[in-house]
Structures are given as structure tokens and as C-alpha cells.
From TrEMBL:
Belongs to the binding-protein-dependent transport system permease family. GO terms for cellular component: plasma membrane. Residues 55-69 have a biased composition (Basic and acidic residues). It is a multi-pass membrane protein. Its main location: membrane. Residues 146-344, 414-614 form the ABC transmembrane type-1 domain. Keywords: Cell inner membrane, Cell membrane, Membrane, Transmembrane, Transmembrane helix, Transport. It comes from uncultured bacterium 50. This is ABC transmembrane type-1 domain-containing protein. InterPro entries: MetI-like (IPR000515), MetI-like_sf (IPR035906), PduO/GlcC-like_sf (IPR038084). Gene3D superfamilies: Haem-degrading domain, MetI-like. Residues 53-97 are annotated as: Disordered.
Length: 629
């Protein structure tokens, strides 16, 4: 073999520092034979170090590009980096075997574009207002639905912040009988969508309901619940876990030093909680409240059950009762303004949470006296019973009475829901994986901005997404029909449903996928590149096997959310394509509350899956306190 020829004959990844001497000896022997050897050594710290033989006539310092291929490159002519990468040296492989690094920002931008479509359509509706239509909306619709929406936001926000914060303080800072059980039982209402909870309360407590009839026969008259107050109470019961969860996380991060410092200043335990723990948890409280407020704006089924007209329900009525897409789009623009206000507040709260973060060892819980412990047990028991256990029992009783309703139509609705959940989970997880991998391969402003945009859809109400995606796509396909003669049926298509699901739930899948990728050390990427794996091949053969737990969690979360989603499915489904959520809406719209129990019970059973996953991770990653007398 000629001495002026460098031949790459071996690439290896060694995981022991003790083998470095053996490698160096092998490199020396190869150099004596005129053979070039490229070796990657991964030390105990996970750092990749390269060792290779010196090419003949190569300087002892850093080699110039014209020394890379001695004898094959004319003097003074330098090779480009891309041409060097596939030459068998230690550089990265080129893009011919995968996706080039420069293409990942483009992929991220393309994946973020569907989220911008409903935003542009809703905000753009203000630039082409129909004077007559807007006059009707501003005179008759907005004066009714806008104050109702704002009042509902106010009542629910105050309710969830008070209830969720009080329960989090009680469970996290005090010791009482059953505390460990209540710590996860208080999360169970997350498994029951607000429209299912509304179905139970209206069906049981309405004038013709079983509970109302039982009490009326004994001289007790219940007030009418089908109003703003009833809708607010049900939404508080369904959404308080958002505040409870984030406040518990905030309290867990404060540590013992904060409360001990307050005690050294002469504050009593109660004063330490009120004057120290609560102010430090204020950003978390506000953050959880804003999440609940966004869910309130997006709610459609619960307010419909209580005959409360909000912006979300007005969008549905404008489209399907007035058959006016333009009116629905202009109402969606008003709703989007409220959503953007909440998003701005959420961004400021996140910055405040970074500043207000404290740390330290876990604080000891204070053991409550018998009377206080009894009150704590009673309060937690009432919340769990009223928000989950009693509604679940009522659903079980109604389902047993109407087992005969389990017919082919209900079975087909369940199959449709499963199919939609599986298709949406596969699509959304793929989008989230590509976004996360783009951020890993090409971190930069473009990819970060695209990821933020793509995950913005979770804050957008389903009714807004449905009309915001339908209107511009219908206009586009209408133009194609006029100019090219293409006839495309958009309304009632599965493609539109899946696109809306992807926009709304990408954020749900993005978080666990990003968490899984962050646990894969960059040294593994470099080692796999030395083995010739680049681009999508590296993703398929190296990262995907390690990401299976995160991908499974993301798929499960998206699947459950799609199963529970009502407005998107109701407004974009093909004709006759019913799901469990749509079946519940149809039955409750006809006042058949008890017959809606079977599909509602199935949705609750599916909803328990993410709650179980959340509780398991909360227990494994949570803290264990001591107990102070």
C-alpha cells in the first residue's frame, strides 16, 4: 500500500478510558504501515475524543484542507466541507444519506404554517367587514355573548384559583389522615370532561331529574341551575386541578429554607404560609388560572348544556343555524383577541416564575390537630365526592338502566372515535418528533420560533380552529374549481378534521418528545455520525429506539384528547360520522341526559389513562416530606 494514500479502515467507539493506550498503539502501528485509522473514544464523562494517525506530509499542528487528501488535490485547491464529509475521514457524513442540516429550519417552518392559517383568517376578517352583517352582530349578538363570556371567565378564574390553591396548600404543607390518597384523588376530575360533568349535574338536578324530584317530594326546592352560575360551578369543578397541580409543583420547589427563614423572623406557621409561601407561589397560581381560563374560552359542550351563550357557542350557531361562515369568522376574530390577551399574560407569568423560583430541601409538613385534621379530611372528601365519585356513580346507574341503547350506532360511534384518535395520534406525534428533532439538529431562532408557533394551537378554542381552517381552505379550493375545474369536497372531510387536531394538540405531544430527546446525550449523535449514520437514518436507527417511552406517552395523551374533543369533531366531521362526544351532544341537545351516560362513561374510562400516567410521574418525581409536630 502506498504511503501517500490514506485509507480509512476502521471506525470504533470505545467506552473505557483504559483502552486508550491500546488504541494509541494500534494507531502507531497503522501509521508505520501507511494506513489511516479514524477512532472515536467516548470517555467516562461521555465526551467524544478523536484519535487518528497523521497523514504523511501532514503538519503536526492543525491540518490545512489541502492536506486532507494528499496526492489527489492539486496544490492550493481546497475542498469544500461537504465534499470532505463523505471521504471516509472523521468529519460528518454529507446530506446525501439524510436530510441536510440546512433543511431542518424549512421543515419546522412548514409544520408551523397550519397554525398561522386560522390566526390570519380570524384577524383578517376585521379588514373586510360586511357592514350589514357586522351591524347585526354588534347590535344583537355581541352585547349578549361578550359580557356572558367575560363574566364566565371571571367566575371560573376566581373559583379555580381559590379552590386549587387551598387544596394544594393543604395537601403539600400539612399532614392529616388520608393525605397521600387525597394528593392523587384530587386530580381525578381531570378524567371527566366538563361537558360530561354538566350532563350529570343537569340530568340529576334539573326539575325533572331524579335528585330534584326526590327533594321536591320532601318539600325542598332546588334553584334553577341552567344559568351562568351553574355553568361556572361545573367548570370550576372540572378545571381546578390545573391550579392544584401547578401550585403543588411550585410549593415543592420552594424548599425548607424559605419557611425556616420566615420562622426565624418571628412568623407563625400560618403567617409563613400567607406572607411567604403564597407570594412565592403567585406566578404559579396565575399560570394555572390562565390555563383554566383558556379551557373556559374553548368550552362548548358544558355551556350548551346550561343554555349559556358564549362566543364559542355563538360561532357554532352562526355557522350551522344562520349558515353564515362570515359571521362565524368575525365572531372567531373577537374570540381570538381574548385568547391573545391571555397568551400575553401567560408569557409574562412564565418570566415571573423564572425569577421567583426558589430551591432547597423539602420542608417538613406540619401535623394538624384532631379538629383541623377532621376539617381537612372533610374538605378533601367533599371535593373528590362532588367532582368525581358522585358523578361517576350516577353515570353507572344511568348506564345500567339503558344498556339496551348499546346498539350498532353507539358501537360505530366508538369505532369512529378510536379510528380518529389513532390517526390523529400518529400524525401529531410525527409532527412533534420532526419539530423536536429540528431543534436538536439545527438550533436557532427560526426553529425556536416555528416550534413556539406550532405549539400555540393548544390555546386556540376548537370552534375558532374549525371555522378558521375551513374558511380560507374553502376559498382556496373554490378558486381552484373556478380556474382549473377541480371539484374538492372540503366541508365534512377527514383531512380538515385531522389538520385541526394537529394544530390543537401538537403542544400536547411536543413536551414529552422534547423531554425524551433532551435525555439523549449529544455524544451519541457524534458517535453515530462516525459510524456513517446521518439525517433521518440517524433518527430512525439511533433516536427512535431510545424515544419509545416518550413517543408512547405523547401518543396516549393525544389519543385521549382527541377522544374527548367536541367542537372540532362536531363542526368538521363528515355527514353521519358520529363519535362518542358528538353522540353525547346530540342526546343532551334533546334532553335525553340518562341515555348519554353510556358514551360519557366510555370517555371517562379513557380519560383515566393520562391521569394515571400523571399520578405515577408525580409520585416518582415528587418529594417526600418529613412531619413536624
Amino acid at each position: 500500500m502506498s504511503a501517500n494514500k490514506s485509507v480509512s479502515v476502521a471506525q470504533a467507539v470505545i467506552h473505557h478510558d483504559a483502552a486508550l493506550r491500546v488504541i494509541q498503539a494500534a494507531v502507531a502501528k497503522a501509521e508505520a504501515l501507511g494506513i489511516r485509522v479514524c477512532v472515536a473514544v467516548v470517555d467516562s464523562a461521555g465526551t467524544v475524543r478523536r484519535a487518528r494517525s497523521r497523514i504523511p506530509r501532514e503538519p503536526c499542528g492543525r491540518a490545512r484542507p489541502d492536506h486532507r487528501q494528499v496526492g489527489t488535490v492539486p496544490p492550493g485547491q481546497r475542498q469544500s466541507r461537504r465534499s470532505r464529509q463523505g471521504s471516509g475521514g472523521c468529519g460528518e457524513a454529507d446530506g446525501s444519506r439524510g436530510v441536510s442540516v440546512t433543511r431542518w429550519p424549512l421543515i419546522a417552518v412548514i409544520l408551523a404554517l397550519p397554525t398561522l392559517l386560522p390566526l390570519a383568517a380570524a384577524l383578517g376578517s376585521f379588514t373586510r367587514l360586511d357592514a350589514e352583517l357586522w351591524s347585526h352582530l354588534s347590535d344583537y349578538v355581541l352585547p349578549q355573548v361578550l359580557p356572558t363570556t367575560l363574566l364566565l371567565l371571571l367566575f371560573v378564574s376566581v373559583g379555580v384559583s381559590l379552590l386549587g390553591t387551598a387544596l394544594a396548600l393543604l395537601v403539600d404543607l400539612f399532614e392529616f389522615p388520608g393525605r397521600r390518597v387525597f394528593s392523587w384523588a384530587l386530580l381525578l376530575p381531570m378524567a371527566m370532561p366538563a361537558y360530561v360533568l354538566a350532563t350529570v349535574f343537569v340530568g340529576a338536578l334539573d326539575y325533572a331529574g331524579g335528585v330534584a324530584t326526590f327533594l321536591r317530594e320532601r318539600g325542598v326546592l332546588l334553584p334553577d341551575l341552567r344559568n351562568l352560575a351553574g355553568a361556572s360551578l361545573v367548570l370550576i369543578a372540572a378545571l381546578y386541578p390545573y391550579v392544584y397541580l401547578v401550585v403543588r409543583s411550585s410549593l415543592a420547589g420552594q424548599g425548607a429554607r424559605v419557611l425556616e427563614a420566615a420562622r426565624t423572623l418571628g412568623l407563625s406557621p400560618t403567617q409563613a404560609v400567607l406572607r411567604v409561601a403564597l407570594p412565592l407561589s403567585a406566578p404559579a397560581i396565575l399560570g394555572g388560572t390562565l390555563l383554566a381560563a383558556m379551557e373556559t374560552l374553548a368550552d362548548f359542550g358544558a355551556v350548551s348544556a346550561f343554555n349559556v351563550d358564549t362566543l364559542a357557542s355563538a360561532i357554532y350557531k352562526a355557522w350551522f343555524a344562520l349558515f353564515s361562515v362570515d359571521a362565524a369568522l368575525q365572531l372567531a376574530g373577537v374570540l381570538l383577541v381574548l385568547v391573545l390577551v391571555l397568551l400575553v399574560l401567560q408569557a409574562r407569568v412564565q418570566n415571573a416564575r423564572r425569577v421567583a423560583t426558589a430551591s432547597g430541601p423539602p420542608a417538613q409538613r406540619r401535623r394538624l390537630q384532631p379538629f383541623g385534621a377532621a376539617l381537612a379530611v372533610l374538605a378533601c372528601s367533599l371535593v373528590v365526592a362532588l367532582c368525581f365519585v358522585a358523578p361517576l356513580i350516577q353515570l353507572g346507574i344511568w348506564s345500567a338502566r339503558h344498556l339496551g341503547d348499546f346498539d350498532g350506532r353507539l358501537l360505530q360511534s366508538g369505532i369512529n372515535a378510536l379510528l380518529l384518535g389513532l390517526l390523529a395520534a400518529a400524525l401529531v406525534v410525527t409532527i412533534a418528533l420532526l419539530l423536536a428533532y429540528a431543534a436538536r439538529r439545527s438550533p436557532g431562532r427560526v426553529v425556536r420560533a416555528a416550534a413556539r408557533t406550532a405549539t400555540l394551537g393548544y390555546a386556540l378554542p376548537g370552534a375558532l380552529l374549525a371555522v378558521g381552517l375551513y374558511a380560507p381552505l374553502a376559498a382556496l379550493f373554490g378558486r381552484l374549481n373556478e380556474t382549473l375545474g377541480w371539484t374538492l369536497m372540503l366541508q365534512g372531510g377527514l383531512a380538515l378534521m385531522l389538520m385541526a387536531y394537529a394544530v390543537r394538540f401538537t403542544a400536547v405531544a411536543h413536551a414529552p418528545v422534547m423531554a425524551g430527546l433532551s435525555r439523549i446525550r449529544p455524544s451519541l449523535d457524534e458517535a453515530s455520525r462516525l459510524a456513517g449514520l446521518t439525517g433521518l437514518a440517524q433518527l430512525r436507527r439511533v433516536h427512535l429506539p431510545l424515544l419509545r417511552p416518550g413517543l408512547a406517552a405523547a401518543a396516549a395523551l393525544v389519543f385521549v384528547d382527541v377522544m374527548k374533543e367536541m367542537p372540532i369533531t362536531l363542526m368538521t366531521r363528515p355527514f353521519g360520522w358520529d363519535t362518542l362526544a358528538v353522540r353525547i351532544f346530540e342526546l343532551t341537545s334533546e334532553g335525553q341526559w340518562q341515555r348519554a351516560a353510556l358514551p360519557a362513561l366510555a370517555i371517562v374510562a379513557v380519560g383515566l389513562v393520562p391521569v394515571w400516567w400523571l399520578v405515577r410521574n408525580l409520585d416518582s418525581g415528587g418529594r417526600e416530606h418529613g412531619t413536624a409536630a
